[in-house]
Design a protein that fits this description.
alpha+beta; two-stranded antiparallel sheet; 55% helix; globular
Length: 598
């Protein structure tokens, strides 16, 4: 097991130098915080990661989850971690003081979450889910529901889930068939099944509160007929005792990665005795659920970045220790082999990982800050921040996942044959990260959302706001010697991007919807390259400022500038191929009368 899984220097650089966390402390909501208190929290998170998460990463993977006699057993450390997050107030840390939270900025919560996830990505999903499910009740449920369910979830006693997927409704949630039948007392009887439900059941959880999508009998077809329900595994009697609620775990899924994070198949109402409680108004369920899904999309991006971070440091550590071969300029067999760290190709693989990991974390924190700004702004500003967050959400879910997979695979490659062996953690990271492009909406679905909805909404207002933010950074870069030239390259790519967007919008306007969206995935790839380029210019500027001020570790800031140079020399040029493809009018992939995929 590699010792280093993330860089505290990097997290602090991103929080303070790049994203100016301290500017949030001027707002009433966050006025209790200062740099010292945040540093203490980050250090405590790292300490917990070192002692209670990282040491169990491999063991939990080997133990996995077991389904036997209708019961689910998960690795024992998970329950301890879940309780710890509940007891320390971490699960509801961003909630207001009135609700017993800490009014912690989301930036800090996500920075801490990143540390935890880098140490052990399977262990933290349980508390993230409980927090997200509880927040749905806070936002849309009644006071009674809040009192009944939320506290226990925040305390790390009851698990929460998001129960959406069904055997015939994965990407297309509008096709769900789980049914809710109204009862005279205002409650509902639920029947149906849900698959792939993370954290859906395990022995240690006294109760599991499913936030479930279902269709009330007689509701309209499609998304307009979906409602949100609280469906507890055990219902709560008047005297507070827990009774079985006819939610059966039919089995668990056996997965290639994240093996300690249980994924369940649930059946509701086999005995016609599964009670659900409506949250908010009828038929608004999918709209409500988007709150949890959007938050979870950022969390998935965070997880991708975190696993890629752990893989990067493991491969760097290996490269520092392994000697092999000689440089092309020195083929003398009498000379001792050189460290593989001296080979240009290995250095390329390491720079590639560093550029992706640090660019991705920066984007996660950019989005987290938008959530905080939404919390403290007036109506006009709030709307702009909300639109920016909406357009960035599919990208922050996708770039760290898709590129994180490539990054981890490259990390594995640095180890040669040992990378393929269980003695090193790279093979586990390779398996663990693979899910991130699948759950919470596949890359295909995120790409349709980005191009088909987010780029188009309010006549392209969100896109304009994003271009405006990027342009602000590019203008600022004019004052900085090292960042300036990269800003010019990004400016040119942004112009190409706008041409692509105009061409695609032209198709949409003509009603050629299938053509418009056929290459949405490639459009996403291009958007990701640009947005991460923006994050690298931000980091370059911050590093140049820090070097000029003379405060801090000059070597570290120079490494930031070198990694920015790498990104613009190796990653940004990939946009050219994508632009060529996206400007091309030849369509090969749309199904015609003949079938060529034979
Ligand atoms: C480990 C794990 C944990 C999960 N946890 C949860 C959970 O906690 N709660 C929950 O509700 N669900 C959960 N899921 C379900 C997950 O969100 C779905 O698997 C995912 O949304 C994809 O649905 P699907 O598997 O049915 O794939 P499908 O929808 O069948 O998709 C198959 C392929 O077709 C593509 N595709 C589908 N529709 C379109 C389209 N309209 N246009 C273009 N391409 C399309 C997809 O991009 C994909 O490549 C989990 C899944 C896994 C594997």
């Amino acid at each position: 097991m590699a010792e280093k899984y993330m860089s505290m220097e990097n997290i602090k650089f991103l929080l303070y130098n790049v994203h100016n966390l301290e500017s949030l402390f001027t707002h009433d909501r966050f006025k209790e915080y200062n740099r010292e208190s945040i540093d203490m929290m980050m250090d405590a998170a790292k300490d917990y990661g070192d002692k209670e998460l990282l040491p169990y990463l491999e063991e939990m993977d080997r133990q996995g989850c077991v389904y036997e006699n209708g019961e689910v057993t998960i690795p024992p450390q998970i329950a301890k971690v879940f309780s710890y997050f509940g007891e320390t107030g971490w699960i509801n840390a961003t909630e207001s003081y009135d609700h017993g939270g800490m009014q912690l900025p989301h930036m800090v919560h996500h920075a801490g979450g990143f540390i935890y996830a880098a140490a052990n990505n399977s262990a933290i999903g349980y508390s993230t889910l409980a927090g997200g499910a509880a927040n749905l009740i806070v936002s849309f449920g009644s006071e009674e529901q809040f009192q009944k369910y939320v506290k226990k979830m925040w305390e790390g006693k009851w698990q929460g889930t998001m129960a959406l997927t069904e055997p015939d409704a994965g990407s297309s949630l509008s096709d769900i068939t789980t049914t809710a039948k109204r009862q005279e007392d205002g409650k509902f009887k639920i029947t149906g099944q849900k698959i792939f439900i993370s954290g859906g059941d395990y022995k240690e959880a006294d109760n599991v509160i499913h936030l479930m999508l279902a269709r009330i009998e007689g509701a309209p077809k499609g998304a307009r007929g979906i409602s949100l329900f609280i469906v507890p595994k055990r219902r709560i009697d008047e005297d507070g005792s827990l009774q079985a609620n006819d939610v059966t775990t039919a089995g668990i899924f056996h997965k290639m990665g994240q093996r300690a994070y249980v994924t369940t198949h649930l059946i509701m109402g086999e005995k016609d005795d599964c009670i659900g409680h409506l949250v908010g108004s009828e038929n608004l369920g999918l709209k409500y659920m988007f709150q949890m899904m959007n938050a979870a999309r950022i969390e998935v991006g965070l997880t991708g970045a975190a696993i890629a971070s752990a893989a990067y440091y493991a491969s760097l550590e290996y490269a520092q220790e392994r000697s092999q071969g000689r440089l092309p300029s020195s083929k003398d067999p009498i000379e001792p082999p050189t460290s593989i760290l001296n080979h240009a190709d290995v250095r390329r693989m390491l720079f590639f990982q560093k550029a992706i990991v640090e660019g991705s974390i920066s984007l996660v924190l950019e989005c987290s800050k938008l959530i905080d700004l939404i919390d403290v702004s007036d109506e006009k500003e709030k709307e702009d921040y909300q639109l920016l967050l909406e357009i960035l959400t599919p990208i922050v879910k996708t770039y760290p996942s898709e590129m994180g997979i490539q990054s981890v695979s490259t990390g594995l490659q640095c180890l040669g044959g040992y990378g393929f062996c269980v003695d090193f953690p790279l093979e586990q990271f390779h398996r663990d990260i693979r899910i991130t492009t699948l759950y919470e909406g596949t890359t295909g679905i995120q790409s349709l959302d980005l191009l088909g909805r987010k780029m188009m909404m309010q006549d392209g207002k969100a896109a304009k706001l994003l271009f405006g933010e990027i342009s602000k950074t590019l203008n600022e870069a004019k004052e900085f010697e090292k960042s300036k030239r990269h800003a010019i390259s990004l400016f040119n790519t942004l112009n190409d991007f706008q041409q692509v967007l105009n061409r695609l919008i032209g198709l949409a306007v003509k009603g050629q919807t299938n053509e418009f969206l056929a290459d949405a995935n490639l459009f996403m790839e291009l958007s990701g390259i640009i947005v991460i380029g923006w994050q690298w210019i931000k980091q370059g500027i911050a590093a140049e400022k820090a070097l000029k001020s003379g405060d801090g570790d000059a070597k570290y800031f120079e490494s930031k500038i070198k990694t920015m140079d790498y990104y613009f020399a190796y990653e940004l040029p990939k946009s050219k191929g994508l632009v060529t493809r996206l400007m091309d009018t030849e369509i090969i992939t749309i199904k015609g009368d003949n079938e060529y995929l034979v």
